[in-house]
Write a structure and sequence with these properties.
The complex is a heterotrimer of chains A (406), B (432) and C (338). Chain A is mainly alpha-helical. Helices cover 66% and strands 6% of the residues of chain A. Chain A folds into three domains: 52 residues, no CATH class; 248 residues, MetI-like fold (Orthogonal Bundle); 65 residues, no CATH class. Classes of the chains: A mainly alpha (406), B mainly alpha (432), C alpha/beta (338). Chains in contact: A-B, A-C, B-C. At the B-C interface, helix 3, helix 4, helix 6, helix 7 and helix 10 of B face helix 1, strand 1, strand 3, strand 5 and helix 7 of C.
Chain lengths: 406, 432, 338
C-alpha cells in the first residue's frame, strides 16, 4: 500500500461524517447520550454533596448497627428494642415478604373464583361478582386498607369479652383459635424430641406422592386405565406421617392461646394490622385478577369447548383439560404484574401500623436517626431487588409454559 | 269414500306454555335455581346482600345533616331516632364538602377550578370524539398554559411567554429541516425552546409585566387541596409523562445499545419501586439533588416524581402500541424513503398512540387512585383532610362519613372513566 | 430572584427561591411571607377550620413570629408536615420555622443540626386507660397492648420505660391521633400513650370522658418548642426573642387589647424597651421597632394564645399546670429584655 493511498483513506474521514454517515452516526448519538448521562449524574452528585455540606451532614451506614430503641409487634425473627436498626430492617423485609406472599395466594383464590363466577349462569352470583369487581377496582387501595382496618377494629370482639363468667365471645375450633379485634390467636406447634423423624416421614411421603403420580400417568398412557389418583395420593399424604407420629409418641404438641391479664398469651398471633392489610390487598388485587381471568377464559374461542364436548368430555373436565390450560397462557402475564403490584402496594402498611420495611427502615428508623438519604436509598434497593427477583422467576415460569408450536 | 270426520277442519288455539316455562318463574328457574348447588349459592348470596345492606342502610339514613359538631349529631340522632341508634353524621360533609373538593382555595374563586375542569373536557375532546373538528386540537395545545394560569393566577405573561417556547419548537420542526436536516431539526426543536426559557423568557416576562401588568389574583400552592389536588397531580402527571414515555418507548426499541440500556434501566427502576418511596424522595430528598438554594414547593416536587413514575408505565403502554402495529407500516415508511424521525412522527406514532388510548386511560385511572398516597407525605388531598378534619374539636371522632364520601367521589370518577375506556376499546376494535 | 423566573418558566408552576446563604430574615422579607411548618392535624395545636384558616397553639406562635418579622400575623404560609418530613422540610429551606409540637432532645439538637429556640409547652408522656380496665398505675400494665403515635419520641420512651421496669407490652404504632383514638375506643389497645396535653384533649372529645382516665405516671420529659435551621444565628435570635416577648408580655400584663396603648410609652422601662418606645433592641435583631407589638397583636400574649386554643375555657380544657408563669409557680420563664 502506498503512502498516497493511506493519505486518501485518512482524508476520506471527515468530521461531518459523524453526523451524516449512518455508520458513525449511531456511535455519535450514543457517545453524546453517555456524556449527557454522566453530566447529569455528576451534577446531581455535586449538588447533593454541597447540600449535605451546607447542612453539616455526613453520609454513612453506621447507624444500621446502632440499637434501634423501638419495639416491633409482629415479627418472624427474634428482635427487641436493643437490637440494631439493621435487624429492624430485616424484620421489616420479612414482614413485607410475609404479607406479599399471603396476599398473592389469597388474591389468586379470590380472583380466580370471582373471575369464573362472573361468567356463571347464576344471575345473582354473576351480578354480585360484577359489583365486587367494580367496587374494589375503582376505589383507591389506600382507602380500602383504612376501611378494612376500621371494620376489623369495630366489628370483631375485644379480647376481654372472652374472659370471665359472662363472656360474650368464645374461641372457635375446640377452644384453640380466638378471633379478636387485636388479631387472631392460634396454637403454636411445640417440637419435642423425635419430631425430626415425623418430618422425615412427611417429606418421604411427599416424594412418594410424586413418584406415584408419575407412575400412574405412565400407566394411564400405556393401558388407558385411570386410577383414583386423588384418593391414593391423599392416603400417602396422611397415613405414613400419622403412623410415625403416633409410633414416636406424639412428639409434636400444640401450645394453645389462653387469656391472661390483658391479652391472649401463648400460641401465635396474627395482628389486626396484618389481617387488615392482607385482606384489603387481596380483595383489591383479586378484583384485577378476576378481570384477567375472565378475559383469559373469554379469549378461548367457543369452538374449543364445543370440540371438547363433542369428544364426550364432561363440563368439569372441559374446564380442567381444555379451557384452563389455554386460558392460563393469557392470564399469567397480567397475573405476574398484579403480584408485583400487590408487593409494591404492601408498602402502604404504614397507614395501619403494620411494620413492614417501609414502616421500619423508611419510617421509624429514618425518623429517629434522621438519615433520610441512606434509609431511602436502601429502601428502594430492597424493593427493586424483590421486584427483579420476582419478575425473573415469573418470566422463567412463563417461558416454560409457553405454547410449543409444532 | 272413507269417513274423514276425525280430521279437524280448523286449527286449535295456541295453549299457553306451562307456567314453568314463562315469565318470572322461568327466568328464576333458569338463572337462580337451575341446580341444587346453584340454588344454595343463590340463597347464600341473597343472605349476604341482606346482611350487608341491613347493616349499612339504617346507619346511612338515620342520620343528621345539619349539626355543627359530632356531639350535636349524636344528640340529634338520639332525639329523632331514639337512644342507642347508630347513625351517620353527614353534617361533617355538609360543612366541609367544599374543603374536600377545593382544599383551601379562596371561596370567591371557586369558579376558576371549575372552569379549568370544564375546559379540560373541551381540550381532550378531539381524543374522546372523532367528530370534533381538528381545529380544537389547537386549543388542546394552549390548554395546559391556560389551566396553569387559571389555577395559580398571577400575571398572564408567564404562561404566554412559556407558550412561545412551544411555538419556537414548532417553527424549528417546520423550517429547520431545510437548513440543517431533520436530525438537526429534531435536536433544535428540543434545545431551542429550553434555551429560550432559560435565557430570554425571564427578562421578557419582567419587561411585559412592567409595560402591561395584566393578571388575576394569585393563589398559592399551599391553598390547594382536596379533590382538586388529586385531579391536578393525576392529570399533569399523565399529560407530562406522555412525551417522556414516547421517548422512553422509542429508546427501549432503539438498536443503539447505550440509549437502550439507559431507557430500560430507568423504566425498570421506576417500575420496581413503590410509588410511596418515590413520594418520600419528593418530600425529603429531592431538594438535596437540586442546586443549593433552589426550592420547589411540595406540589411541584410531587408532580415531578409522579411524572417520572407515570412515564415509566406510559413507556410500557406505548411499547405495546408499537409492537401491535403491523410490520408493513414500518416497511412502507422505509419504502417511501422517510428517515427515522419522519417515519416515527408521521406514520408510526399516530397509529401507535391511537391503539394505546384505552391503556393510557386505564393507566390514568391507576395513577389517579394512587394520588391518594400524597396524604402520607402531608399534602392535604381528600385522604389528608380526612385526617385533618377530626383534629377540629367539633369533629373529633368522625371516621366513616368522610371515607365514604371520598370513596364515592373516586368511584364515580374512575368508574365512568373505565366505562369510557371500554367503549373506546370496542370502537377501536371494530376499526380493523 | 432570577431563579424564580427561570424555573417558573420551565415548570410553569409557582415556586419560591430562597438562597440558603443569604440570611433567612432577608429571604422572609423578600418573599413577604413566613413559611411555617405545622402538624397536619393535632387537636388544639394545629388544624384547619371550616374556612381553611389554620388554628391552634402551635399556629399561634407562627402568627406571632410573622407579626414580628413582617408586621402582620397573616403574612404567613402554613406547610402541613408529617412527623417524617418535618426535619427534612426545615433542612431544605422549605420552611423557615417548625412549630409542630416537637420535643427538644440532644440528638435532634446536635446530630440532626436543628436549633431549638425555647420551650413553649412543657409536656410529659402519659397514659390513658378506660376506667373499667381496673388499672391504677402503668406498673400494673405488664403484657398490655399500647397504642403509640409512630415517628415521635414517645415510642422510644415507652420501650425504655417498660424495659427498665422489666415488663412486656405490645406496641401498636399508629400514624395519627384520629386513628389512635379509634383503635383505643374500639378496645384494640388497652391504653393510648402520647403527650399528656394531647391525651387530655382527646379524652375531652369522647362521648363519655368519665369512662376514661389518665394514669398518674409521667414517664418522660417532653419540652415542646419551635425550632429553626442550624447556622443562622440571627434568625434563631428572632425566633427565640419573639417567644420570649410573648412570655414577657404575659408577665407584664401586656395583652392583645392593650398593647397599642402600652406601645405609646409607660412608666415601666422594660415594657418600653420591648415595645420599642425606648432603646434600640429591635435594631439589634434587624427588625422594625414595633416588632413585639405586632407579635402580640397577631394572637395575644403567651397566656392568651394558651387559653384561646388549649386552656381551660377551650374545648381542650388544659390547666396551666407547669406551664404557668414562673411567678405563679410554673416553668415558663423568659430572660429579661435588657
Amino acid at each position: 500500500m502506498s503512502m498516497a493511498d493511506q493519505a486518501a483513506e485518512k482524508k476520506a474521514f471527515r468530521l461531518s461524517m459523524l453526523i451524516y454517515d449512518t455508520r458513525y452516526r449511531s456511535i455519535t448519538i450514543q457517545v453524546i447520550a453517555l456524556i449527557a448521562l454522566a453530566l447529569v449524574g455528576a451534577w446531581l452528585v455535586s449538588n447533593t454533596l454541597s447540600n449535605l455540606e451546607a447542612l453539616d451532614k455526613e453520609l454513612g451506614f453506621g447507624f444500621l448497627s446502632e440499637p434501634s430503641s423501638y419495639d416491633i409487634n409482629q415479627r418472624l425473627i427474634e428482635y427487641d428494642s436493643r437490637s440494631s436498626h439493621g435487624r429492624a430492617a430485616l424484620v421489616g423485609i420479612l414482614n413485607t415478604l410475609l404479607v406479599a406472599f399471603m396476599g398473592c395466594v389469597l388474591a389468586t383464590i379470590i380472583g380466580v373464583t370471582a373471575g369464573v363466577a362472573r361468567l356463571s349462569k347464576n344471575w345473582i352470583i354473576a351480578r354480585l361478582m360484577t359489583v365486587y369487581v367494580e367496587m374494589f377496582r375503582n376505589v383507591p387501595i389506600l382507602l380500602w386498607i383504612v376501611l378494612v382496618m376500621a371494620v376489623v377494629i369495630e366489628t370483631l370482639p375485644v379480647p376481654r369479652s372472652f374472659k370471665g363468667e359472662n363472656a360474650t365471645s368464645s374461641m372457635i375450633l375446640g377452644d384453640s383459635v380466638a378471633i379478636t379485634n387485636r388479631g387472631i390467636y392460634f396454637p403454636k406447634p411445640i417440637y419435642l424430641e423425635g419430631s425430626m423423624i415425623v418430618f422425615a416421614a412427611f417429606i418421604l411421603s411427599l416424594v412418594g406422592i410424586w413418584v406415584f403420580g408419575r407412575w400412574a400417568k405412565k400407566r394411564q398412557a400405556r393401558t388407558g386405565d385411570i386410577l383414583p389418583t386423588g384418593w391414593i395420593k391423599l392416603a400417602i399424604f396422611v397415613v405414613p406421617t400419622l403412623l410415625v407420629f403416633f409410633i414416636m409418641g406424639r412428639p409434636i404438641t400444640l401450645e394453645y392461646p389462653v387469656f391472661k391479664g390483658f391479652n391472649f398469651q401463648g400460641g401465635y398471633q396474627m395482628r389486626n394490622s396484618l389481617i387488615a392489610l392482607w385482606l384489603a390487598l387481596s380483595f383489591y388485587t383479586g378484583a384485577f385478577i378476576a378481570e384477567a381471568v375472565r378475559a383469559g377464559i373469554q379469549a378461548i374461542s367457543k369452538g374449543q369447548s364445543e370440540a371438547a364436548a363433542a369428544l364426550g368430555l364432561r363440563p368439569k373436565r372441559i374446564m380442567n383439560l381444555v379451557i384452563l390450560p389455554q386460558a392460563l397462557r393469557v392470564i399469567i402475564p397480567p397475573l405476574i404484574s398484579q403480584y408485583l403490584n400487590l408487593t409494591k402496594n404492601s408498602s402502604l402498611a404504614i397507614v395501619v401500623g403494620y411494620m413492614d420495611i417501609t414502616a421500619t427502615l423508611g419510617g421509624i428508623t429514618l425518623n429517629q436517626t434522621g438519615r433520610e438519604m441512606e434509609s431511602l436509598l436502601l429502601l428502594m434497593a430492597m424493593y427493586l431487588s424483590i421486584s427483579i427477583t420476582v419478575s425473573i422467576a415469573m418470566n422463567w415460569y412463563n417461558e416454560s409454559i409457553k405454547m410449543r408450536e409444532r | 269414500m272413507s269417513d274423514q270426520s276425525y280430521v279437524r277442519t280448523e286449527m286449535l288455539g295456541e295453549k299457553p306454555p306451562p307456567s314453568s316455562q314463562v315469565g318470572v318463574v322461568k327466568w328464576v328457574m333458569e338463572n337462580l335455581f337451575s341446580s341444587i348447588p346453584n340454588a344454595i349459592m343463590t340463597i347464600v348470596s341473597v343472605w349476604v346482600v341482606y346482611y350487608i345492606l341491613s347493616g349499612i342502610l339504617p346507619w346511612a339514613f338515620q342520620s343528621s345533616w345539619n349539626a355543627t359538631s359530632l356531639h350535636g349529631c349524636r344528640a340529634y340522632i338520639a332525639e329523632t331516632y331514639g337512644e342507642g341508634v347508630e347513625g351517620a353524621c353527614w353534617s361533617v360533609i355538609n360543612e366541609r364538602w367544599k374543603q374536600l373538593l377545593f382544599g383551601f382555595y379562596p371561596k370567591e374563586l371557586y369558579w376558576r377550578p371549575v372552569v379549568t375542569l370544564a375546559l379540560m373536557f373541551v381540550a381532550i375532546s378531539p381524543v374522546l370524539f372523532t367528530s370534533v373538528p381538528r381545529k380544537v386540537m389547537l386549543f388542546s395545545v394552549i390548554y395546559p398554559f391556560l389551566a396553569f394560569w387559571l389555577l395559580w393566577g398571577g400575571s398572564i405573561w408567564l404562561p404566554i411567554v412559556a407558550f412561545l417556547g412551544l411555538v419556537i419548537a414548532y417553527l424549528a420542526i417546520v423550517y429547520l429541516p431545510a437548513l440543517v436536516g431533520s436530525l438537526g431539526a429534531t435536536i433544535g426543536a428540543g434545545v431551542l425552546p429550553i434555551l429560550f426559557w432559560i435565557v430570554i423568557a425571564g427578562p421578557i416576562i419582567d419587561g411585559l409585566n412592567g409595560i402591561a401588568p395584566i393578571g388575576i389574583e394569585g393563589v398559592d400552592s399551599d391553598q390547594m387541596g382536596g379533590f382538586m389536588i388529586s385531579i391536578i397531580i393525576g392529570v399533569s402527571g399523565i399529560a407530562l409523562s406522555l412525551p417522556i414515555g414516547i421517548l422512553l418507548a422509542l429508546g427501549r426499541q432503539s438498536p443503539l445499545f447505550i440509549v437502550k440500556t439507559i431507557c430500560v434501566g430507568f423504566i425498570e427502576f421506576i417500575r420496581g419501586v413503590p410509588l410511596i418511596t418515590l413520594l418520600f424522595v419528593a418530600s425529603v430528598l429531592l431538594n438535596y439533588f437540586l442546586p443549593p438554594g433552589t426550592n420547589f414547593d411540595l406540589i411541584l416536587r410531587v408532580i415531578i416524581m409522579v411524572t417520572f413514575f407515570a412515564a415509566a408505565y406510559m413507556a410500557e403502554v406505548i411499547r405495546g402500541g408499537l409492537a401491535a402495529l403491523p410490520k408493513g407500516q414500518y416497511e412502507a415508511a422505509d419504502a417511501l424513503g422517510l428517515d427515522y424521525w419522519k417515519a416515527t412522527r408521521l406514520i408510526i406514532m399516530p397509529q401507535a398512540l391511537k391503539i394505546s388510548i384505552p391503556n393510557i386511560v386505564s393507566n390514568f385511572i391507576g395513577l389517579f387512585k394512587d394520588t391518594t398516597l400524597v396524604s402520607i407525605i402531608g399534602l392535604l388531598d381528600p385522604m389528608g383532610l380526612a385526617r385533618a378534619i377530626p383534629a377540629d374539636q367539633n369533629w373529633n371522632g368522625i371516621v366513616w362519613e368522610i371515607y365514604v364520601f371520598i370513596a364515592l367521589l373516586f368511584w364515580i370518577f374512575t368508574f365512568s372513566m373505565s366505562r369510557y375506556s371500554m367503549y373506546l376499546e370496542r370502537k377501536l376494535a371494530t376499526g380493523h | 430572584m432570577k431563579k424564580t423566573v427561570l424555573f417558573g418558566a420551565i415548570a410553569a408552576v409557582g415556586l419560591t427561591a430562597g438562597m440558603a446563604s443569604a440570611g433567612t430574615l432577608d429571604d422572609v422579607k423578600a418573599k413577604g411571607e413566613l413559611a411555617c411548618g405545622v402538624s397536619t392535624g393535632s387537636p388544639g395545636f394545629s388544624f384547619p377550620d371550616a374556612d381553611g384558616r389554620w388554628q391552634g397553639f402551635d399556629v399561634g406562635y407562627c402568627r406571632a413570629l410573622a407579626g414580628a418579622v413582617l408586621g402582620s400575623g397573616d403574612a404567613i404560609k402554613f406547610v402541613p408536615l408529617s412527623s417524617k418530613t418535618r426535619f427534612a422540610a426545615l433542612g431544605s429551606g422549605e420552611i423557615d420555622v417548625l412549630s409542630r409540637n416537637t420535643t427538644w432532645t440532644f440528638s435532634r439538637d446536635v446530630d440532626l443540626k436543628q436549633t431549638f429556640v425555647g420551650v413553649d409547652y412543657y409536656d410529659g408522656q402519659g397514659f390513658m386507660v378506660k376506667t373499667d380496665l381496673g388499672v391504677e398505675s402503668v406498673l400494673d400494665m405488664d403484657g398490655a397492648t399500647i397504642c403509640i403515635q409512630t415517628g415521635t419520641t414517645t415510642e422510644l420512651n415507652l420501650a425504655d420505660y417498660f424495659r427498665t421496669n422489666g415488663m412486656t407490652y405490645e406496641p401498636v404504632p399508629i400514624e395519627g391521633n384520629a386513628e389512635a383514638q379509634q383503635q383505643y375506643l374500639a378496645g384494640a389497645c388497652d391504653s393510648y400513650t402520647t403527650d399528656r396535653s394531647a391525651l387530655a384533649g382527646t379524652r375531652m372529645s369522647f362521648e363519655n370522658p368519665d369512662d376514661h382516665m389518665l394514669l398518674p405516671e409521667i414517664i418522660s420529659k417532653e419540652p415542646l418548642g419551635p425550632l429553626v435551621r442550624h447556622g443562622d444565628d440571627n434568625w434563631a435570635d428572632i425566633a427565640r426573642w419573639t417567644l420570649n416577648a410573648l412570655i414577657t408580655a404575659e408577665e407584664l400584663g401586656i395583652t392583645q387589647a392593650n398593647v397599642l396603648e402600652m406601645a405609646k410609652g409607660t412608666d415601666n422601662p422594660e415594657i418600653n424597651r420591648m415595645l420599642g418606645s425606648e432603646g434600640s433592641l429591635a435594631a439589634m435583631l434587624g427588625l422594625e421597632s414595633d416588632w413585639a407589638v405586632n407579635a402580640i397583636l397577631a394572637g395575644g400574649n403567651y397566656g392568651e394564645i394558651f387559653s384561646n386554643n388549649i386552656g381551660e375555657n377551650s374545648p381542650i380544657g388544659l390547666s396551666r399546670g407547669v406551664n404557668a408563669l414562673w411567678t405563679d409557680g410554673g416553668l415558663i420563664y423568659s430572660p429579661p429584655f435588657r
